Amino acid sequence: MLRTRRVGRGLSMAVCAVLTFSFFTACSRNKTGSSDSITVGVVLPITGREGKPGQYQREGIELAIKQINQNGGILVKDLDKKLPIKEVFYDDTSDQAKSAAFAERAMSSDNVVAVVGAYSTALGEAESVMPDRYQVPWITTGAAASTIFNHGYQYAFGTLSPTNLLGSTTAEYLGTLVDQRKLTKGLKLALALENTDHGVDYGNGIKEWIQQHPGYFVVVFSENFDLGSPDFSGLLQKVKSANADIFLADAHLQDYITMHRQYLQSGMRHLMISYGARGPESDARKALGDGVDYIFAGIWWSRNLPYPQVKKFNEDYKAFTGHEPDSWYPATAYDAMRALAKAIENAGTLNKTAIRDALRKVQLNDSLLPGQTLKFGANGQINTPFVIVQNKPGGKVDIVFPKDAATGDSIAPTPKH
Amino acid sequence: MSTSPAPLPIRLLAQWRTFAPSWMILAGLAVMPLLLSSPNFIRLLFVTLLWITTSVAWNLLGGFAGQISFGFAVFYGIGAYTTALSMNAGVNPFIAFLVSAITAAAASLLVGLPTFRLRGPYFAIATIGISEAVRVVMTNLSFTGGASGYRIVEHRAFRQLDHYYTALVLASIAVAFSVFISRTRFGLGLNAIRQDEDAAAGLGVNPYAYKLGAHALAAALTGMVGGVFSRYAAFIHPQGVFGFQTSVHILLMPVIGGIATIWGPVLGGVVFGIVEEQIIASFPEIHLFIYGSMLILIILVEPGGILGAFRKLLRRIHGRR
Amino acid sequence: MTLIEFVNLLASALLLAGIYAVMSVGMTVIYGVMKIVNLAHAGFMMLGAYLALELFERFRIDPILAALLVFPVMFVVGRVLHWLLVRRLPTSDQPTLASLLLMFGLWLVLQNLGYFIWGNADRSIYTSHTLSLLRFGAVTISTVRLVVFGAAVACMVALHLILNHTWFGRSVRALIQNRYAGQIVGVDDQKTASITFGLGIGFAGLAGALLASLYSFNPDFGRPFLIRAFVIIVLGGLESVSGVAIGAFVLAFVETFGILFVPAGYQLALSYGLLVVVLIFLPGGVAALTAKVRRLA
Q: What DSSP string describes B176-199?
């Protein structure tokens, strides 16, 4: 330690130098907010656990930005000219602390008018503190848990309907199958929920619906599991022992694939099976082949929705990225960006509070989402209905609920292989 | 050391020249936010100061005493949750930080009492086990919100400088502790334990008690950092604050900088706090590659970390040996 | 619980143990000889998985055979990395922090390599066997799991034989027992270390390639396995193949059966709790206990 003292002095100078250097690099990105473009922050994971869905959402946002800019940008009345949108992107590496840090960085130093992004509940929750702190509007495209929106935040918005609506829609869908005599009354449900707010809300939605509609179903098993586990045989054995008729899980993409593979490998069978908001992903079909047939999922959007704007979006997205939209991910992000653009135009200024006020009133009438109207509720979250899709043999995915959007009939109960 | 019988404060005063640069850095850091009010820069400095504190704290046990712990996320997380729970119960944040320090130190005794009987890799791996078990329990514990995380509601406007100066004071305390300890009998004892535990015991050092002491001190500092962080972040989650990654980061910082030194852990904290984020922000597609290669290079150039490399350089410049 | 359920669980625990064993054995050899905790283990598993996928998709090679082909490739990768990086580390009887940092950095680089080459999609190997089942009355066993288990066991037996019946194995064991004494009696420790590192990486790749038939993976693959591998090699006493097998069995059984007694969310707390208890009361691992029993008998 004697030697330490000798070099300590020179070293302290080095610390000084590093600090100064870092200061200049930290400031170098501050110049982004010039007057000839509108800067929007995008914080999403493209590496780590949530990398894939995060990337899909980024593609949705970037497609919207590209299209808006191709039309000359957004007309800002105050400045009396059309300005293009400029994206400042940060990869939060699926890490909560970084997610919050980058949202804060964008809001405080990149001179953004809003931040869009935050895929997955946990990352969104970490970011949700920042919008009100810096009074910058924030639209989450991938976090739906109610805990984000019941704190009275004034600058937080979300383009995903609440997860308990997902739960109750799932139960309602099963209820209509009972009404159609495809299933019988009094069936037993087993629930395996991911141990997050998403899972909790989903389970609550199902249980609420069952309470309001007595006689349809009984829950015989309900347990939480940890995401990212390599083995679910114990949990599945418990589900098996519960002797339920219907198996409803709520999981992330990887866990859905791992769990369902083990489900099939252990020879289990239920009348109906769902993994919450996961099901039609192409990665899952590549991994499990026909094994994913007949799984149904409640999702925020489907590329099979029979709206002209959805058809156009599918084509544009394919041209932009080279692949079809996978499940719901890009759509909520695409619409969030469009709603923001419209709000900026309505506000007629780049003042963030004015944009926030405009977001509260904005209405997207050609929304991709079910119901075709996107409007933020009083708590900042939208409340569009869910669609239930079912995987059909041959890789087809049909919307089976609600009736007016359906592209095919439900196959219920699951036929024997 | 044996030729300096004067009391310690006088010795420290006498060495003011050695400490002059440190005072300059401190003064610079204290004034800087007043001159440049970039919130992002202040946030970066704030985070860096927190990492510096954990890094210096870990170094007390892992560097000076040579006990490699993979479990500092436990104290970080306990500190974060203690502050969060206390603040939501209406406790003043600064008192909450102290409570965090005490809880974390108490937890360190619980961890240390059984595990300090183990040596080398066995101790390291036991701390992994404990830290992961705690994380899993915290993910399922209902009164802390479990896997939903926990939100801190503070009923006053957010003032970034409050947080910044808290972190600055904390980091200064940590560095001062580190300097102080390295110059006391306690520090010598820890050093002896690192070099040869049995020989140290033979010389009248009680390794078990010394290790527990260093552990508790390190845990208290880390717990306070957790508390300061949670007040700033206002939302904490067990997968984050109790995560294995957190432990690994706390451990790697001193290694990057130079282990068992005063300034190495500080440098490591700077690399980790500022450089990593700048890399991620500037190169979103290849940040893992750049950061990873940087770590590899640092360690290959000089296993003693940045400080070791710097020392080599100095020696070469001065032409000594 | 009925008998059938019990047998079913027993079967899945056994199969899981095989997977756990093969994924930990590479880490053990490296630790035993070089005292390096391979934090990049998960990265090499990921690489192995993608190599198997490429072999399967491009050349239609059966995934299990592909896994066996991955082994020599990764062995070479390991030796190159040893020559390039690892041999520059200071040698020690204790795990050094420098090696931890090196391996951590390597892991990050490997992950980025994965993202760069293969993107961040969840990939998987799907064959006609993926979902096929073997039925023994009411007991069902997944064919792929059984095959993977068989391959894993075969590879571990091969490694065990190499270590116990060849000159190379002898020098490895000598270095594990006492590095300096080994050098004195003429063991070329650099060469042995290089081959060992290659073996360790080879086994990591092999494990990843085998697991590719069971899981979907992306460049972040292996993270949940890393800590489990730590647990297993400690349970097994850190340095022998048979120890790893024992450790893997213990962990797999605790995980599979533990869930019957605690809520699913607490399952992992049980395994990690077990690890700590073993360490405190049985610092040589379960393997030391069996050795003791054997000596007494």
A: HHHHHHHTSHHHHHHHHHHH-HHH
**Residue boundaries of the structural domains of chain B:** 8-318
pLDDT at B240 > cutoff 60: yes
Helix (H) or strand (E) run with residue A273 in it: strand A272-274
Whether A133 and B24 lie within 8 Å, measured CB to CB: no
Q: How far is CA A346 from the centre of its chain?
A: 26
CB contact under 8 A, B126 and C109: no
Q: Using the predicted structure, report yes or no on whether residue A1 has a pLDDT greater than 60.
A: no
The pTM (predicted TM-score) of the whole model is 0.89
With beta carbons under 8 A apart, name residues in chain B contacting A129: 151, 233-235
CB A148 within 8 A of CB A383: no
Cβ distance A343 to A334 under 8 Å?
no
Chain A within 8 Å of C140 (Cβ-Cβ)? yes
**Residue C297 placed within a domain:** no
Query: How many other C-beta atoms can be found within 10 angstroms of the C-beta atom of residue B125?
Result: 26
> Does residue C93 belong to any structural domain of this protein?
yes
Distance from CA of C26 to the nearest CA of B (A): 17
Widest pairwise Cα distance in chain A: 85
Residues 6+ apart with CB under 8 A from C66: C51, C52, C55, C56, C209
Gap between the Cα atoms of A389 and A407, Å rounded: 9
Number of neighbouring beta carbons within 10 Å of residue A306:
11
- CATH code of domain A35-161+306-375: 3.40.50.2300
Sheet containing A396-401, strands listed edge to edge, beginning at the edge strand earlier in sequence: A217-225, A187-194, A246-250, A272-274, A296-299, A387-392, A396-401
A29 vs B contacts (CB less than 8 Å) = 281
Q: Which chains touch C (3 or more CB pairs under 8 A)?
A: A, B
Four-way CATH pick for B8-318: 1.20.1250, 1.10.3470, 2.40.50, 3.40.50:
1.10.3470
Nearest to C122 among A231, A238, A283 (CB): A283
Enter the tokens of residue B44.
């970066």
| pLDDT, chain B, mean | 88
Q: Work out the burial of residue C296: count CB atoms within 10 Å of its CB; fewer than 13 is exposed, 13-18 middle, 19 or more buried.
A: exposed
A243 in contact with chain C, both atoms CB, cutoff 8 A: no
- Which tokens hold the place of B127? 């701390």
Tell me which chain A residues have a C-beta less than 8 angstroms from the C-beta of C216: 254, 257-258, 283, 287
Residue of chain B with shortest Cα separation from A106? B40
The sign of the CA dihedral C87, C89, C90, C95 is negative
Burial class (CB in 10 A: 0-12, 13-18, 19+), C87: middle
Cross-chain residue pair A234–C215, CB shorter than 8 Å: no
Residue B72 and residue B134 in contact, taking contact as beta carbons nearer than 8 Å: no
Residue from B295, B298, B302 to probe the interface with C (highest C Cβ count within 10 Å): B295
Contact B280 A22 (CB under 8 A): no
Confidence of residue A348 (pLDDT cuts 50, 70, 90): very high
Chain B interface, mutation test: which of C83, C94, C104, most B Cβ atoms within 10 Å?
C104
Its domain, for residue C150, covers 3-221
Query: What is the percent of chain B with per-residue pLDDT over 90, rounded to a whole number?
Result: 50
| Partners of residue A119 on adjacent β-strands | A142
ipTM of the complex: 0.88
A139 closest CA partner among A362, A400, A414: A362
Strands A217-225 and A296-299: unpaired
CATH numeric code, A165-279: 3.40.50.2300
CA of A378, closest CA in chain B: separation in Å?
21
Across the interface, of C97, C106, C234, the residue whose CB is closest to B68 is C97
Confidence at residue A309, expressed as pLDDT on a 0 to 100 scale: 94
